[in-house]
């Protein structure tokens, strides 16, 4: 199953302009189901329950949710209530608060009756900008891939990624995947090792779906496999996305990213983080200061998927489970940040 078109747009305004349309990512890759969000409460639920996810897309969804609330009631009280409702939907991705602040900044000076339309316009602009940012990140990452390939032109370039840093996590292109899509489009031989990304399997379900849709050769691996592949020289570089990079360059991303960075460091494999400026958080000093989301242990204890008679769920442990959703990779393990402005060394952030 695939979605066609250069611009796949994982979020857009509904036809009547009063809501937002998202893909229900809980059902991918088995079914493509678009859902209409009609209120801030709908948007908050979709973010909290991960119908929609990925740092930039969470930001875009919250912006539309905020706009829906303001279209209904543009008063200061309604503005503050919607801001807080949405800001608390998920704690780790800084893009959520960034997008809400952008909308609030745009509408606060306006009379209540004008705030709804202005908020929708700002949300649209946030989405358009996200596409442009990812496209620019992709262009810089592509140059990096070309340079690495030129060192060993006879070989396929093996890239390892974690979680879903793709167009499903953004409005289009993705952060880490943008350069991979551009490389594939220009005929550079690439192959992607896709970490399954337990417990929610964003790699096995979402990244693999995206790469297949774009015709990129890829292989899903268990989360524990990357170290072995790196020792064997079968990974040329790692590119991941991020939910927040703090002032000192620490990288908060999906749980398991840190272990990949350690293995990459030990094996001399370059470890890159792709992100737009909206994911930098200069107000938070270090990764230790980032709130790490803890999710329902049943996400770990239960496995679900399509069975012979519809959706099947099985329990895979009889013991208590613990499910922190993100970890922190220290800046010292990061080779570079791939941004819309080019490559940035972690040391450059704190200098
Ligand atoms: C745009 S990519 C960066 C991250 O948002 C992505 O890798 C990630 O960790 C997403 O986590 P999720 O919990 O699925 O929202």
TrEMBL record:
Protein origin, superkingdom: Bacteria
Question: GO terms for biological process?
Answer: L-methionine salvage from methylthioadenosine
**Keyword Lipid biosynthesis part of the UniProt annotation:** no
Alphabetically sorted, this entry's keywords are: Amino-acid biosynthesis, Isomerase, Methionine biosynthesis
Q: Spell out the residues of the site Transition state stabilizer.
A: 163
Q: Which molecular-function annotation in GO is an example for this chain?
A: S-methyl-5-thioribose-1-phosphate isomerase activity
Spell out the reaction equation it catalyses.
Answer: 5-deoxy-alpha-D-ribose 1-phosphate = 5-deoxy-D-ribulose 1-phosphate; 5-(methylsulfanyl)-alpha-D-ribose 1-phosphate = 5-(methylsulfanyl)-D-ribulose 1-phosphate
What Pfam families does UniProt report for this protein, alphabetically? IF-2B
Any idea of its EC number?
A: 5.3.1.23
Q: List, from the UniProt record, the residues annotated as the active site of this protein.
A: 243
- Binding, substrate: 53-55, 90, 202, 253-254
The annotated pathway is:
Amino-acid biosynthesis; L-methionine biosynthesis via salvage pathway; L-methionine from S-methyl-5-thio-alpha-D-ribose 1-phosphate: step 1/6
As for family, the record states: Belongs to the EIF-2B alpha/beta/delta subunits family. MtnA subfamily.
Stated role: Catalyzes the interconversion of methylthioribose-1-phosphate (MTR-1-P) into methylthioribulose-1-phosphate (MTRu-1-P). Also catalyzes the interconversion of 5-deoxyribose 1-phosphate and 5-deoxyribulose 1-phosphate. Part of a bifunctional DHAP-shunt salvage pathway for SAM by-products.
Q: HAMAP family, per this entry?
A: Salvage_MtnA (MF_01678)
Q: Would you tell me the protein name for this molecule? A: Methylthioribose-1-phosphate isomerase
Instruction: Show the taxonomic lineage.
Output: Bacteria, Pseudomonadati, Pseudomonadota, Alphaproteobacteria, Sphingomonadales
Q: Which gene encodes it?
A: mtnA
């Amino acid at each position: 199953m695939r979605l066609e078109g250069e611009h796949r747009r994982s979020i857009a305004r509904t036809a009547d302009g009063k809501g937002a349309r998202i893909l229900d990512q809980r059902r991918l890759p088995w079914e493509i189901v678009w859902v209409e969000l009609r209120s801030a409460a709908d948007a908050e639920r979709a973010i909290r329950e991960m119908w929609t996810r990925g740092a930039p897309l969470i930001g875009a969804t919250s912006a539309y949710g905020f706009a829906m609330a303001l279209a209904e009631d543009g008063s200061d009280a309604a503005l503050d209530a919607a801001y807080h409702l949405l800001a608390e939907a998920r704690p780790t991705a800084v893009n959520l608060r960034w997008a809400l602040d952008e909308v609030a900044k745009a509408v606060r000076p306006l009379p209540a009756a004008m705030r709804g339309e202005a908020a929708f316009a700002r949300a649209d602009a946030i989405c358009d900008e996200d596409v442009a940012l990812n496209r620019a990140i992709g262009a810089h990452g592509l140059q990096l891939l070309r340079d690495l390939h030129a060192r060993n032109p006879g070989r396929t370039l093996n890239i390892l990624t974690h979680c879903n840093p793709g167009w499903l996590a953004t409005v289009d292109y993705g952060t880490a995947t943008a350069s991979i899509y551009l490389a594939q489009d220009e005929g550079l031989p690439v192959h992607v090792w896709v970490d399954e990304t337990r417990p929610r399997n964003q790699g096995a379900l979402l990244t693999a779906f995206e790469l297949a849709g774009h015709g990129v050769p890829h292989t899903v691996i268990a989360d524990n496999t990357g170290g072995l592949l790196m020792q064997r020289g079968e990974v040329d570089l790692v590119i991941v996305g991020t939910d927040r990079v703090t002032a000192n360059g620490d990288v908060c991303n999906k749980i398991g990213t840190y272990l990949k960075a350690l293995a990459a460091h030990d094996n001399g494999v370059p470890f890159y983080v792709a992100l737009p400026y909206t994911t930098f958080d200069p107000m938070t000093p270090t990764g230790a200061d980032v709130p790490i989301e803890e999710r329902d242990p049943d996400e770990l204890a239960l496995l679900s998927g399509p069975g012979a008679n519809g959706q099947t769920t099985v329990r895979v442990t009889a013991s208590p489970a613990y499910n922190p959703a993100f970890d922190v990779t220290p800046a010292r393990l990061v080779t570079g940040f791939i941004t819309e402005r080019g490559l940035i060394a972690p040391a450059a952030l704190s200098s």
